[in-house]
């Protein structure tokens, strides 16, 4: 390769590295915020879980959201990102959901999809799978109000019998370098931890009416919690992907610089040989 | 004097934490006053103001958009999808929300789902404007 070409490649790689480095830092900052959001959401979901648990365990409360019914149609709630450049973040979830659906269902009438994120929407569209509802352009730090519409739609679709169970798929944030693909059965709410709370509550006006308010709110908060978790995982995996890209770019620049120097040295040596040869010919 | 711990929690984080000698709220079944030592209770709330009467005799107003109240002898927790302390309410935004909801209500009478939603939004906005005037 000519000297000039190598130089050009080094320059362009350096520029790419600058971008990936900046993106890494941006994602790191966003990850920080996302972790904080998840933390401030904690008390809310803990409390609501406690109350739901104590009502559900306390009595013979029966609510449609607590009861398992024969499954004719399954709902899938899939959380992806709006953008790529996040390593295997999106493909992990999508591949798994796609396979699961292929295995479990024979006809498209047996499942319904609710999708968050542009990547997921495009994925299912290109495979001609119909999407019941979707939301794209979710902020990096989503507020509850933003998610409320799609969450309550998912819950009401279960309530009115459009589907009989609802699974949620997202990446669970473990650490900055690890996130686990999670499948969670959201509805019916079968795995409510029975808390052994000391206080048995009085219910005003009645248990059933409280469940009517409480359970949808609980299910919606679970969806929101999962989304916060997924956002943290997204920022983390984008950060890791960008760090890897930066490292690769660094390595590449090293190699290119080495061959650039070699090439330059060869050119100089050749020039000297030519001059020496020329002088010898004159003598 | 005996006091009771009060916290108002939303999915976006805690909104209010403090001690009070009495908390009053508007439950679906009617007005509710909670003093320290109240028996454990759970009740759904309406879109309304929660009033926290603190030890100095002052009253704090917190706008809540429904949710429910959980009472224990020493602690009151209010879980709402959205809540704001009177002082934090942006009146302009609440007014804008009110106008939006009114327009939507006037605009379509046929779509039931949208109408109910707009009605709720209107209630919330009016509630916030009301409470903001009390700070």
UniProtKB/TrEMBL annotation, chain A:
Give this protein's Gene Ontology molecular function annotations.
ATP binding; proton-transporting ATP synthase activity, rotational mechanism
Q: Does the keyword Chloroplast apply?
A: no
Main role? Answer: Produces ATP from ADP in the presence of a proton gradient across the membrane. The gamma chain is believed to be important in regulating ATPase activity and the flow of protons through the CF(0) complex.
Supply the alphabetized keyword list.
ATP synthesis, Cell membrane, CF(1), Hydrogen ion transport, Ion transport, Membrane, Transport
Name its GO BP terms in alphabetical order. Answer: proton motive force-driven plasma membrane ATP synthesis
Can you list the GO cellular component terms from the UniProt entry? plasma membrane; proton-transporting ATP synthase complex
Q: What is this protein called?
A: ATP synthase gamma chain
Q: Where in the cell is it found?
A: Cell membrane
Q: Keyword Transmembrane on this protein? A: no
InterPro entries with a match to the protein in the record:
ATP_synth_F1_ATPase_gsu (IPR035968), ATP_synth_F1_gsu (IPR000131)
In the record, the note on similarity to other proteins reads: Belongs to the ATPase gamma chain family.
Q: What superkingdom does the record give?
A: Bacteria
Q: How does it assemble?
A: F-type ATPases have 2 components, CF(1) - the catalytic core - and CF(0) - the membrane proton channel. CF(1) has five subunits: alpha(3), beta(3), gamma(1), delta(1), epsilon(1). CF(0) has three main subunits: a, b and c.
Pfam families referenced in this protein's UniProt entry, alphabetically? ATP-synt
Topological type in the membrane: Peripheral membrane protein
Q: Which HAMAP family does its entry note?
A: ATP_synth_gamma_bact (MF_00815)
Q: Which coarse location class describes where this protein primarily resides?
A: membrane
What lineage does the source organism belong to?
A: Bacteria, Bacillati, Bacillota, Bacilli, Bacillales
